[in-house]
Every structure is written in C-alpha cells, then in structure tokens.
C-alpha cells in the first residue's frame, strides 16, 4: 500500500475506485466497505484508494480539548494503527489529507472537483450509509447520485453492517471500551482492541511480590484507554513475540491513595528486560474491577487468582 500524506504528491490515476472517511477503528462496518471497494476495483481493472483525514475533524472544528464537549473525544486507533489495518485489506493507495479549517471550508462541489476528480482520478465511489462531505457536511449520497453522470462517476452506498442486530459504529465501540466490555468491542471491531505504549520505569514493587510488571506510557494522548480494572490480554513485544498477560488499569489503591492512573502488565512466563521498548496489548477479556485489599498478602493472593483466570481465558 502506498501512503501519501500530501494531496499535491498523489500520483495521477485514470480509473480509481475510491472510498473516503475517518475510518476510526476500521471496524466491521468499515471492513464491509473495504471488501466492496476491492470487488468494484477488480471488476473495473483499476486501483483502490482510501481517503482519510488527520487530525480528527472534531479536533479542528470543535472547541478546545479542555472544553467539556470534547472530553469524550478519544480515538479507537492511532494513525499508525489505522494505516496498518487498512494495509491488511489490500488497499493500493491511502491518501491522508491534513484536516485544516481551510480544507473544511471546501464546498461539496469543490471537494468533488478538487479531491475526488482532479487529485485522485475517481471513477467509482463506494461510501458508507451515513457519509457526508464538504462544508457543513452538505454533501450526501443523494447529491452524488443525482449528479453522477455530470461528474463521470458511478456511486454505490453500503448499508449499515449489523452485528447481533445492533448497528456497528465507532461510537458504540467507544462506549463498550469505556465500560471495560472489551469482548463486545472486539466483536464489533472484528479484532481484539489494541493498545500500544512504551515501557517505562515504575515503582518496581511488582518484582518484590512475584509479579513484575511493565508500566506503559502511551505515545498517542487521544488513544482511548479501557475502563479501570483487571484484564486478560495478549502482549506483543518489539521483537515479534507474543505472550499471555494480565494487566491492570487503575490507581493501585492497595499501595497508596492519590496515585495517578497507570497501565501495568505482567507477561506470564517472561523475564526479559523491556525498558524503553514498545509493547502492544490486545485486550481479550475483563476479569474484575479494581479493588483495595487489606495489605500486600491479600493482594498477592488475588493476583494468583487473576493469573489462573488469565491462563484459563487465553488457553
């Protein structure tokens, strides 16, 4: 997949099959669009193109992040995670348009002419059921359909993808992750919810009680972190190895009050040094809520139960 981050550098294409959107999560609904994109492109003999945007439009058009209306803005994917997922679906070209207020001011007609036609060379357009574009989201499937011949396009709209009779959306997945329901999130995503961070030094208390942990520091501040609690997960190291892991997201109430939230993961049957390395977690199941115990012996006893539960879930 060729990734282009500047529209001015996009190569001239004569018969592109295109879809466009934020694609946060690249979930089952997005995946349906991507599969259809590839089918249409194969029938027409041209390349597939995905147009996406960075940063998220709400970061540019909304109030400052300190404003209460934006406190819930957390992303299912970092930009690199989104790129990797789109690559898995055999996309030929990914155009990442820098989302600015100037870009947002383009009318739907300007967007079609400047981006879809002049920049990309779109001939077939495949879009999701609720896709809008252009200034004030004025563009729609209905507009495209009515003027397709004038633009020299064919346009196809993909209906909502349903899982368990519930419409799949990035919003629903965010709600599941925020509730700690990583199993539902994974079912809607079509893959385990990921979280990547760099291993940093913590208080190193875990090694003194038989459960050494890697403390993760996220590199993308807008990445959505699941609810506080204890989880079973897979941990992928920078060396490409995968390990069973139990992890805690919380403030470690047994150790002391007033601590900042941490993400700590214990890789089972693993003892190598991970400091400074990137570690990727795949959330498999919620085990329990974070609790305060009456001293370290009680905490260690619970950790032994958590380890057994983790091994059972990941067996």
Tag the structure with descriptive keywords.
single chain, alpha/beta, Rossmann fold, Elongation Factor Tu (Ef-tu), domain 3, six-stranded parallel sheet, 9 helices, 30% helix, 27% strand
Q: Could you explain how this protein is built, in words?
A:
With 315 residues, the chain is α/β, with parallel strands linked by helices. It has 2 domains: 2-167, HUPs (Rossmann fold, 3-Layer(aba) Sandwich), CATH 3.40.50; 193-314, Riboflavin kinase-like (Elongation Factor Tu (Ef-tu), domain 3, Beta Barrel). Helix content is 30%, strand content 27%. The chain has 9 helices and 14 strands. The strands form 3 sheets. Strands 1-4-3-2-5-6 form a 6-stranded parallel beta sheet, sandwiched between helices. Helix 6 links the parallel strand 5 (122-128) and strand 6 (154-158). Mean pLDDT is 89; it is low at 65-71.
